[in-house]
Amino acid sequence: MSSMDRRQFLKGGLAAASLLAAGSSLPSFLRGSGGRATRTKVLVLGFDGLDPRLLNRWLREGKMPAFARLISAGDFRPLQTSIPPQSPVAWSNFNTGTDPGGHGIFDFMHRDPQTYIPTFSGSLSTESKKALKIGNLVLPLSGGEVKNLMQGRTFWQILEENEIPATIFKIPSNYPPVPTKQRTISGMGTPDLKGSYGISCFYTTDPGIPKGELSGGRVYEVFIIGNRVEAKLPGPINTFKKDRPEALIDFQVLIDPSQAVAKVVLPDQEFILKEKEWSGWKRVHFGLIPTQSVSGICLFYLKEIRPHFKLYVSPINIDPGHPALPISTPESYAQELERVFGSYFTKGLPADTSALDNNVLDEGEFLEQDEMILRESERMFDYEFERFDSGLLFYYVSSTDQRQHMFWRLMDEKHPEYDPQLASRYGRTIENIYGEADRFLDRVLQKIDKDTVLLVMSDHGFNPFRRAFNLNTWLFENGYHRLRNPWKQEEGSFFENTDWPRSRAYGIGLNGLYINQRGRERDGIVNAGADSENLIREIAAKLEQLVDPKTGERAILRAFVAKDVYHGPHLEHAPDIICGFNMGYRISWDSPLGKFPKNVFEDNREKWSGDHMGAPEIIPGILAANRRVRAESPALYDLTATILDIFGIAKNKEMIGETIF
Amino acid sequence: MGQAKVKLDKELLEKVKKFAQLAGYSSPQEFITHCLEKEIAKLEESDSEEEVKKKLKGLGYIS
Q1: Nearest to A435 by CA among A480, A389, A403
Q2: What is chain A's percent helix, strand, coil content, to nearest 5?
Q3: DSSP 3-state of A460
Q4: For helices A429-447 and A65-73, angle between their N-to-C axes, nearest 10 degrees
Q5: pLDDT at residue A391 in the model
Q6: Is residue A3 packed enough to be buried (19+ CB in 10 Å), middle (13-18) or exposed (0-12)?
Q7: What are the structural domains, with CATH classification, of chain A?
Q8: Per the CB < 8 Å rule, is A215 touching B63?
Q9: Do the chains contact at A120 and B55, CB–CB below 8 Å?
Q10: How far is A512 from chain B (nearest CA, A)?
Q11: Alpha-carbon distance A234 to A217, whole Å?
Q12: Whole-number Å distance between alpha carbons of A625 and A661
């Protein structure tokens, strides 16, 4: 939106708000002079994964002074999260004021019942259907499409209908951004340039490091010949070519023969890196055909020169200066930010947790990268807060979530990956990020005016992830799932070995269990209706009784039956059972993708050691506000109704929340 | 259009001839072409599945 457009928009918004305020039920604190709500502003700070128990602990210890000030002047509540408490689900509850039955996002992953293959839940990309084939080239004659799969109206679309301006900064589940004239930029769910959740590259001469595909990365073997390393940077799939190769950029690294310094030479630029130095953003161009190229941005990090060469290149983010995919509304907003700040992180979850998990980056290097993300986030907040003069500003911070995922093991002596040596150095990483959240809040409290309603929220809390549950193995061992060759149980993935015409249930995604239902699944065998219903109740009861033999604890506190807990028109796409795990438990690493490891339970031996797949009652988020909160036990969708109510807007009939004030 | 010969086992060729006629194909060649096209379509489909799998791998929650 140009500045002129926005002023006009604001003008309309003020007029509408004054009309609505006349005779409305708005609390007195929201009314400006003369009963007009013209000065009403709402600022929502979203700290992903901020946990009420940890927050309370550090509040008691006096380590969260800004939160203490806010809460003493206003209020604090644990905030009911979604079922399941996964970020895309939880934020969609908030975005639309509904539950998954209303917005249709049930998990990070859904499944295609015709293929039993997992799919992205958040967005769907389709390539051009009409194409002209010339030799090895496939030229699309019409554009492809990317679609946000979250259903329902978002609160900022409803604000727009009521002429209240809003800026929505990186709210999850908004990729591609839903159609609106509001200023929005997409967050979690935004892919890298390859269309994935993030694939980094690591180039090394170290023979001790296995080469090839990793989860979330690739390791390439390179050779130093005459102080020169030759390598290729892979980009997006080149759909213009018939055999769909990856677009590649050739580059060289020239190593200084005596110093720990190297020069990286890309086709159109070169730069020098010292050992242990990050490059800052570099724009790279992938040629597709002579008339078409696509640009992305990435970070180079020279981890080591000697004895082994090690170069990390971050996932290639969509270039906000020339976005190849839609990441903002209006389109020019991403470019406006790029003009002000230069290149910036656009990948949905920008921290490269996979690189830390794969030992490509160590703890310190990961934190250096996440530090860049956090500081960038602060700078951009200051920019938006400075010009926030009406309506609503939502601002999202991811580092609180990402650091808890990766560093829980170093503050939890019971975790299988607890390492006392690393803990002595990084054991306070989570405490520190809570401190950063507090300092972030302090900047706000110093500047916020008394008419602005402030809501500080998180989508869920955090739990340790010590033990992993192989749902598909459990289904197999209990006769609900059959394998064609049981002796090959541990081989393959994506149910390659499944005997579908004899299988009654299967697990896909992080919390979901589906019945292999006749008429719904390709090879479904369980009749819809009573047969399916009975099987669901039987499996749910067994799951809730399941005890981990190693700990004697129940692994699943609640096995929710979808139709008991969801409301709305999309219920038919829900998993039949949603597993709500006990403290310390989560789905395993392999089960979500249709694998059958040998044991039902196993220790979690990954650095990814904190998680939030629990039963919602043990993993609430937080709500702190600068107003008294009437609701005893508010939920995410209540905040949506609250925001609309503050502006005097009635919630729509699909919304299930109530105002908290 | 280029043509290429493919060697088939005699026993298999007899079966192809028999079932091509039974299934109403105009020639064994048409039957074989149809079978190959169907199989190739399946493989092409699994290519796109491969892409989905690779893309999902970057999600920190799975291996």
Answers
A1: A403
A2: 30, 30, 40
A3: coil
A4: 50
A5: 97
A6: exposed
A7: 3-99+158-190+350-462+619-646 (3.40.720), 200-318 (no CATH), 467-608 (no CATH)
A8: yes
A9: yes
A10: 14
A11: 11
A12: 10
pLDDT of A134 reads 67
Taking the C-alpha atoms of residue A194 and residue A296, their distance in angstroms, rounded to an integer, is: 10
Handedness of CA A4, A8, A9, A14 (dihedral sign): positive
CB A469 within 8 A of CB A553: no
How many other C-beta atoms can be found within 10 angstroms of the C-beta atom of residue A379?
Answer: 12
> How distant is the alpha carbon of residue A329 from its chain centre?
19
- Mutation target for B interface from A119, A593, A604: give the one with most B CBs within 10 A: A593
Scored b (16 or more CB within 10 A) or e, A148-161 reads bbbbbbbbbbbbbe
ipTM value: 0.70
Name the residue among A593, A567, A451, A496 with its Cα closest to residue A27: A451
Contact yes or no for A297/A270 (Cβ under 8 A): no
Can you list the residues of chain B whose pLDDT is less than 70? 1-2, 41-58
Token output for A218: 């690739």
Instruction: Report the DSSP pairing between strands A145-148 and A463-469.
Output: unpaired
In a 3-state reduction of DSSP, which class is residue A455? strand
- Give the residue on B whose Cα is nearest the Cα of A609: B61
Judge whether residue A15 has pLDDT over 80: no
* Residue A27 buriedness (CB in 10 A; 0-12 / 13-18 / 19+): middle
Tallying the residues shown for chain B, one arrives at: 63
pLDDT for the residue numbered A264: 98
Q: Structure tokens of A489?
A: 């149980």
The mean pLDDT value for A605-619 works out to: 97
Q: For residues A172 and A160, give the distance between their C-alpha atoms in angstroms, rounded to a whole number.
A: 19
- Say how many CA atoms lie within 13 Å of A503 toward its Cβ: 27
Is the CB of B55 less than 8 angstroms away from the CB of A494?
no
Alpha-carbon gap: A27 to the closest alpha carbon of chain B (Å): 43
A7, pLDDT greater than 60: no
Subunit contact B63:A589, Cβ cutoff 8 A: yes
Q: Is there a contact between A296 and A317 (Cβ–Cβ < 8 Å)?
A: yes
DSSP A42: E
Local confidence band at A292 (pLDDT 50, 70, 90 cut-offs): confident
Q: Which of A158, A128, A125, A160 is nearest to A141 (CA)?
A: A128
